[in-house]
């Protein structure tokens, strides 16, 4: 069992304006992301399946060629290996989940 | 890709006072849970790894013999097959993640 208080997790800067805090289990990684208004996460991909849930704000996520304009309470599942990028027009908080664990971020 | 608006997901009653909304990907299930103050989820177990994050309120989670008194921003990882139960002393919102998919809830 692992209990983590996010207050004890250091920020990891994914891109300018994207501050992430990561927590890892056996097969799951949970990532809370605070995003400054007007920030862009460049197109990237990884073999892990990802689920992104918007907690507050707004996120424009492009997966492949499809734009998802997401607000609070919306969740998108991104298959492993799918190129994606994100833009936050306003200050935004998201919760990302990955499986398997993001060993590259451990 | 799957985009889900939680507003479109029907409630599933896990126990009295535990209302869940579930979303499924390929290997991930995301479950938002609204819990009424004073509600108890009886001891149970499942083979899936689970990560529980408290969004608001307070949750007293017993995993095996260990009590976790959790507030906002805390995440616990529960290994597959571990018996656990929960009690919310106040109105609480949590986000649970499972891998693999909870086919029993699809």
List the secondary-structure elements of chain A in sequence, H or E. Answer: EEEEEEEEEEE
CATH superfamily of chain A: Jelly Rolls
Total individual domains of chain A: 1
N-to-C span of chain A: 17 Å
Gross morphology of chain A is: globular
- Helix count of chain A? 0
Task: Write the SSE topology.
Two copies of one chain form a homodimer.
Chain A: E1 2-5, E2 12-15, E3 18-24, E4 29-35, E5 39-44, E6 49-56, E7 59-63, E8 66-70, E9 74-78, E10 84-88, E11 92-99
Describe the structure.
2 copies of one chain form a homodimer. By secondary structure, chain A is an all-beta fold. The first copy, chain A, has one domain: Jelly Rolls (Sandwich). Helices cover 0% and strands 60% of the residues of chain A. Chain A has no helices and 11 strands. Chain A has strands at residues 2-5, 12-15, 18-24, 29-35, 39-44, 49-56, 59-63, 66-70, 74-78, 84-88, 92-99. In chain A, strands 2-3-4-11-6-9 form a 6-stranded antiparallel sheet, with no helix packed on it. A 4-stranded antiparallel sheet of chain A has the order 5-10-7-8, with no helix packed on it. In chain A, a hairpin with a 4-residue loop joins strand 3 (18-24) and strand 4 (29-35). The radius of gyration of chain A is 13 Å and the shape is globular. The two termini of chain A are 17 Å apart. The relative contact order of chain A is 0.29. Chains A and B meet through strand 1, strand 6, strand 8, strand 9 and strand 11 of A and strand 1, strand 6, strand 8, strand 9 and strand 11 of B. Strand 1 (2-5) of chain A pairs antiparallel with strand 9 of chain B, so a sheet runs across the interface.
